Amino acid sequence: MNINSLNTFIEKTWDTSVIPSLMEYITIPAVSPAFNPEWNSTSHLSDTLKLAQSWCNSTALDNAEIKIINKKDRTPILLLEIDATTPEIQETILMYGHLDKQPPGAGWDENKGAWTPVIENDRLYGRGAADDGYSIFTAVTAIKALQAGNIPHARCVILIETCEESGSFDLEYYLEICKDTIRTPNLIVCLDSGCADYERMWITTSLRGVIIGELEARILTQDIHSGRSGMVASSFRILRQVLDRIEDSKTGKLLIEDFYAQIPDERLTQMQKTAKLINANLIDDLPLLNGACAMSGDPLDLLINSTWKPAISYIGAQGIPQIKTAGNVIREYSKLLLSIRMPPTVDTTRPAQRLKALFENNSPYGAKVTYKLLKHAKGWDMPQLGNALEESINNASNLCFEKTPGFAGEGGSIPFMTLLAQKFPQAKFLITGVLGPKANAHGPNEFLHLPYVKKLNLALSIIIGELGGTQ
């Protein structure tokens, strides 16, 4: 395998073809269905797939079928099937990505915006570039580079969906109707994760589960004058009281025993190594106000807290007006949107069901407290890589980054990983990504680190080529 030739091909493809196409992709406001109820009456999701399909066709992949599948009332997908180099290679590699995006959000720098691609200091800014527009271009370029170098590869299937940011609610449907194409993959590659720095290839070892629901406290039939405070409890204070049942507000520790899981020894060892590798960078990556501090000064504690312990975030509110329109009243109700991250190995079914009783029973002041579960999904813990894949990852990281790979858990959730693990229990998994320090997925100034993604693309090509269908 001529690494220099592979690298030259990938660099040229990115500079002349991928980056311009990614910039065009950024301009498409393809907000995921959960954040755009009118998604089905617009063409934005389909437009991203048409752009990707057109680009894929332009690469002239050998022995490839490239098609958009768009079923009524379902979010569309892009499906590529690339035959193995020779019929003797029987294995299949399934590669995954998505093209739907988080909402634009506020707080972008003056010269940047969610739908305005900007390249600055080797960073491509814009919503979706790193989460997860780069994935289709990286997967295809990795395969085409092998073909250009006459390097054998296994049969590859690439599935790109458009509702990942909404929980991948159509993915199981498409896995079923496309099962004859997907078959039984030996290796599943997910290009939708993070990296703890831009110095090496990072492998995601675990993902937390999630429980999302609405918690409401209603005490009045209408707002009343705040002069009656002291007579009627604040609905917001009622929420505070019932939230105290599950969270210690001083420490952020969740108080429910079965929300926790034992950390496997292998994961703890990996976190210890990762903490030493990135150390202060872990805290530096947090956009803390001057004088503010993280929940711990110990990087290992932060890694454990954010990947293997449960934690609650208050991600939305209702019934609380903006300050400029707020009357001096006791409000009739307050509602919060809760996101509870769960350890990777905890089955979220029972905790999700328990929350309703924990919140609603014995409500303060006889108020009407209701909890509505919106969705929940179990996390994921990586199965053993196997000697061949682990050796290939090590080799690729050393060749491309001149450093051994890093292994780290992610604090977020990718619900479909559990689905794929259940559906294909024999498969090996390689989850990696480009969301590193300051990349700020879902937030303002999201960017794709261009030098890093090119190296990662080369690493992926090497891994696919080295395995050659022999994993």
Principal-axis shape: globular
Main β sheet profile: 6 strands, mixed
End-to-end C-alpha gap: 18 Å
What integer is the average pLDDT?
96
Structural class, by secondary structure, is alpha+beta
Using the 3D structure, state the CATH architecture of the largest domain. 3-Layer(aba) Sandwich
How many distinct folded domains? 2
Helical stretch tally: 13
- Relative helix content: 25-40%
Percentage of residues in DSSP E strands: 15-25%
- Give me the CATH fold name of the largest domain: Aminopeptidase
Report strand order across the widest sheet.
1-2-6-3-7-17
Radius of gyration: 24 Å
Index terms:
471 residues; Alpha-Beta Plaits; Aminopeptidase; 4-stranded antiparallel β-sheet; 6-stranded mixed β-sheet; alpha+beta
